[in-house]
């Protein structure tokens, strides 16, 4: 079920991709992946988070370009607006509508995009606050475990990878599958026009690569997410015993009758 939309940002010109050369773009980069039984046919559900509240936020503009590309590649996208998100532990019991909506969106998603400015060599406090509001476990639901993740950063100066490296660490901590490719846009103020659209460049092409790869990994892992996140410690904690009659691993390793 799709989450409520009070804090979803509208995507301007969602189908306008002036910097994308259609001669080289695959509209369905994940075609043929998945199980082959139709499981790959539904649009991948992608949540996008950005890390700055400036009126002209380059991390938000980069996320919007990423969302347009994801839509072009057949995904369903949601961009969370963190404008009124409180700090972690600021509200007793995290009882705040923005926190609830962020968690609902994460649970809804199959994959995520995190984009932060680099500030003092790190991700911003806003970016970290959004991630900190996502618990590993929430009433038996794990809102990040098994999701795919793409990381991006924007910088005001020369190219750096401090923010994406930190987000990779956080993605691993949140039990997400972070894809190999990533994007780092240097001197971001030079890369967007007055309308907030990204100019054609190698930086833009890299974002295309990253979103293409995210869609592929999301569809590829979709049929196997439950198996990949099935943990001994969690089965033990929840009292879920393995039935040798139905467990595929037990069947595969059982002695074969002559």
What this model shows, in words?
By secondary structure, the chain is of the alpha/beta class. Strands 1, 2, 3, 4, 5 and 6 form a 6-stranded parallel sheet that branches. 33% of the residues lie in helices and 11% in strands. The mean pLDDT is 90. It has one domain (45-233): 3-Layer(aba) Sandwich (Rossmann fold). It has 8 helices and 6 strands. α1 links the parallel β1 and β2 (76-79). 39% of the residues are buried. α1 packs across α5 (202-221). It has helices at 58-72, 97-108, 125-132, 162-173, 202-221, 225-228, 232-238, 248-253; strands spanning 45-50, 76-79, 111-117, 148-154, 177-178, 183-185. The longest helix is centred in the last third of the chain and has 20 residues, at 202-221.
Overall morphology: globular
Number of beta-strand segments: 6
Distance separating the two termini: 50 Å
**CATH class annotation:** Alpha Beta
- Counted up, domains total 1
Q: Quote the CATH topology.
A: Rossmann fold
Mean of residue pLDDT values: 90
Biggest sheet overview = 6 strands, parallel
Give me the secondary-structure category.
alpha/beta
Query: Which percent range describes the beta-strand content?
Result: 5-15%
Helical percent range? 25-40%
Number of helices in the DSSP assignment: 8
CATH-level-4 superfamily name? Flavodoxin domain
What are the segments in which pLDDT stays under 50 over at least 5 consecutive residues?
none
Q: Round the Cα radius of gyration to an integer and report it.
A: 20 Å
Helix and strand run: EHEHEHEHEEHHHH
Which CATH architecture would you pick?
3-Layer(aba) Sandwich
